[in-house]
Amino acid sequence: MFYDIRRIASENFSINIENGKIEKPKIIRSYSKAFRVLKNGFWGYFAGNVNDDEGLKLAEKNAFFSGDSEILEVKNDGNYEMKVKIDPRDVPTEEKIAFLKDLNSIISADSVRISYFENIKTLEYEDSCGTSVSYKVFRCGIVLFAVKKEFSIIQSYSRKLMKAGGFEVLKNAENLAREVNEVISKLLKAKTPPGGEMNVVCDPSLAGLFVHEAFGHAAEGDHVLQGSSILKDKIGKRIACEEVNIVDDPTIQEFGFYPFDDEGVKAKRTVLVDKGILKSFLNSRETAKKLKEEPGNARADGTAFPIVRMSNTFIEPGNWKIDELLEECKNGVYLAGSRGGETDPTTGNFQFAAQYGYIIKNGEIFEMIRDVSISGNIEILMNVKVGKELNFDPGFCGKAGQFVPVSDGAPHILCRAIVGGS
Q1: What is the DSSP string of 206-261?
Q2: 79-104: b (≥16 Cβ within 10 Å) or e
Q3: For residues 298 and 389, what is the distance between their CA atoms, to the nearest angstrom?
Q4: pLDDT tens digits for 10-33?
Q5: Which of 336, 340, 311 shows the shortest CA–CA distance to 322?
Q6: How many CB atoms lie within 10 A of CB 192?
Q7: Which CA distances in Å does 310 have to 8, 158, 304, 330, 406?
Q8: Is the dihedral of CA 280, 285, 287, 289 positive or negative?
């Protein structure tokens, strides 16, 4: 019988400023435990602040059926405590409020909302294999959102700066605010997009969204085992052109960073696609056992049951400069940012809304376009050209009602897809 225990402490502090008005700062502290027992191939689970023996008994009591679940038994030990340059708890609330007001003053719009947060998470994990690990990780971030109106036209634009680390990760926040101010004004004068299949240069944010949503979820081991992934039975096969290398790496200190996953497995870099060939999936201990792969990608929202998740998922840099990609594109569109979209990991079909874009004519950027979408299938990876400079875009990924911090990364890429209005 396998069992594990997680002890999770979390400290959250947040401030919002909307149209110059500061909302009351919030501090939320929590501590809880999660217990799992695997008995007769069936998981029993319990979460609550009880002593360890009682928690394990309650979890075992919930393992009341038999099943086919089994895990890869691994043993890890160690502890990690993040060293930050500026502990956000040492920055006075008044200084944080002044920081938000300065950002707010840069953006000229009809409505501006800026949200600041900091989080400190401490995890202690132990299991019946002899694993005993712990970590303490800081995260800080801001989200800027602006709305501007002109006659009957209303446009919005948002940007995020969120990373694992201390208050120092926000040092370039003013540049982000200036970008929001510049783009939101231009959007009001932007044109509607052309429609149809065409050449598309995606900026790192949109390309990162693609690799996360259209590819990354299909590479999660639980989806593969459920038969709900287009990548099932494709290990060792070509799914992209030779320029494409895709990696998931929780050891990079971006927003999806973690030193150990929520099953106590040491974080590691996973090469998913190497020169266009599918090499691996992302796995928990259970999916790793069934797929004969390695675990390390089980994550949980608080005390929820750990499931297979991404961390920092990205396309590795290629050899093309941005001006070379535009020249290669010749005629088409340049699309930037993302406002979400829809994907189906079973078929590989996707549709995303970009925040804005530009017309490309004869390899040069011309007028701005707005309300634009891109759609296609994961097969577009078979014919893409990959830029040189890698950038990450942070966010919270939702799956099975759980939300965990992740980062999507990519350089600029050139592909062919269907463009339309959104």
Answers
A1: HHHHHIIIIIIGGGBHHHHHTT--TTTT-TTSB-S-TT--EEE-TTSSSTT--SB-
A2: ebebebebebeebeeeebeebbeebb
A3: 29
A4: 999 999 999 999 999 999 999 999
A5: 336
A6: 11
A7: 20, 23, 16, 35, 7
A8: positive
Q: Which residue has the tokens 């490309």?
A: 360
Cα 297 → chain centroid: 13
Q: How many CB atoms lie within 10 A of CB 43?
A: 18
Q: If you classify domain 2-187 with CATH, what class do you get?
A: alpha beta
Residue spans of the domains in the chain: they are 2-187, 196-421
Please give the structure tokens belonging to residue 195.
């429609």
d(CA 347, CA 343): 9
Nearest residue to 413 via CA among 380, 387, 376: 387
Rounded to the nearest angstrom, the gap between the alpha carbon of residue 273 and the centroid of all alpha carbons in its chain is: 18
Whether 5 and 35 have beta carbons less than 8 Å apart is answered as yes
In the structure encoding, which two tokens stand for residue 408, read together? 């999507």
Q: CA of 216: how far to CAs of 244, 345, 375, in Å?
A: 14, 9, 17
Total-model pTM: 0.96
Per DSSP bridges, beta strands 372-377 and 402-410 are unpaired
CA distance 205 to 41: 42
CB-based contact 239:206 (threshold 8 Å): no
Res 342: pLDDT = 86
pLDDT of residue 422: 75
- For 132, the token pair is 């005993």
Q: Please report, for residues 203, 319, 388, the alpha-carbon distance to residue 323 in angstroms, rounded to integers and kept in the order given.
A: 13, 12, 11
CB 364 within 8 A of CB 333: no
